[in-house]
Amino acid sequence: MAAETETGLFRAPLLRAILPGHRLLRAGTGCGAAPGVSSLSLPGHRLLFAAALLLLTGHCGGSVPDIAMHFGTKTRYEDVVRLGRNLSVPGAEGCSPVHLTAVIRHGTRFPTVKNVRRIARLSALLRDAARGHAASARLRDIQDQWEQWYTEDMDGQLVDKGRTDLSNLAMRLAGSFPALLTEAELRGGRIDIKTSSKHRCVSSAEAFQDGLHQVWARARETGAPGARETGTESGTEAAERDQDQDLEYVHEVDDALLRSFERCRGYVEGVETNATATEEVERFKQGAELRGVRTRVSEKLGLAPDLLSPDLVEAAFFICSYELAVKSLDSPFCRLFTKEDAMVLEYKGDLKQYWKRAHGHTINGLSSCPLFHHIFRTLDKAGRPRRATDTPPEPASVLIGHAETLLPLIALLGLYKDKTTPTATNYQSQRDRVFRSSHMVPYAANLLFVLYDCPRGPRLSLLVNESPVPFPGLSHDLPLYRDVRAAYRHLLDGCDFYSECEGRRSRAPNTEL
User: Of 45, 70, 99, 106, which one is the catalytic site residue?
Assistant: First the structure.
């Protein structure tokens, strides 16, 4: 199937450069800079400069509920990821990074229309219940401390915190790989940035570039490497110039690559629109664990359990997650749930992601064949032997999509696959599972493929959310690239999107799990 792409240039005001005394995060997020960074005077030495960038964590002030790590795909990145490490592999083996491919989920967003409508139904139910004389203390707290402010026109749009997620990620990556993410390479068109057409992804692509430009502006100010050559122009003059002019965003919209699942007929007919494909989710919604959550939440609200459907319980849980992610607030809705309740609801979400997007059905992973081949073609080009006079490889490729982009790729690569399949009836035995969407695909989740030039040949590092993850079947922390290709030879030689998605109307569940 031919790729359908649309290229365009986008212009918007450049965020202010990181200069002494300036906040790192945008106003309106309820967040501030990482402690000690906003007024830090950075020396010009590259290593110290990179180390200072690694202090960017994106953490916000205020109380964080103890259930914050269990919101599934609505989890904040900083609540489940340990930040501040240098992602580049030490050069003990004489290796140096030559290419970075980053597959990134968009940042924090508003709820979609579907969930805004759920929240509105719950709000109306609670408002009517609060009119009675016997309203519970928890219900009165919600009525006194919270108003329904979500509107349908928000529909999944990126929030300021989401821009911060992506700009800070860009800063950390530039700190770890300063030779790959340079201003000269971006302006020369050698850093490839592709995005889904969804507004939240396009905005995330812009925010990522904002973060890079902030790093480069600071590099010019301090005289550190990484910025493009400015001739006789001083660092201060360059920074002032960038603040006075609009930043030209350069990225390509490519839904055939980053939303290939919606073009895969075998997936759409076999899973997306096939209720039986996610029957484990529906069975769990009617099971004992979720009935227990409904009963406990209903009691706290003083409502009859039959008034609070599983969808409305989940809406209350989502309000807690959105208030924390968007406003950095510990919402009164959070106090409706114990940690065990949150883990039950997290499992319900994981069942959905597992069966609808990941290992549950073979076609889920195969729907990401275009992305898989794109990544390895890019790595092949970057790792190809060259003469000294040859053009150097493209240093970086940034691909911004959705949780639905990352999860099928994770499944295709064989990552986070438990020995036992999660079902509606084995919640207790799955408490220590590795497949947790909260940890795999929070907002701003990322898969980083870093190719190194080494004495014995190219080597490849894989990081998920900035933490090293081994390739299945390969024990070396930094395996030879040829060994990685050998491990995925069956996919490199096959995984044809047309035959897998168009030639077969549907696929049965994966019986090899």
Answer: 106
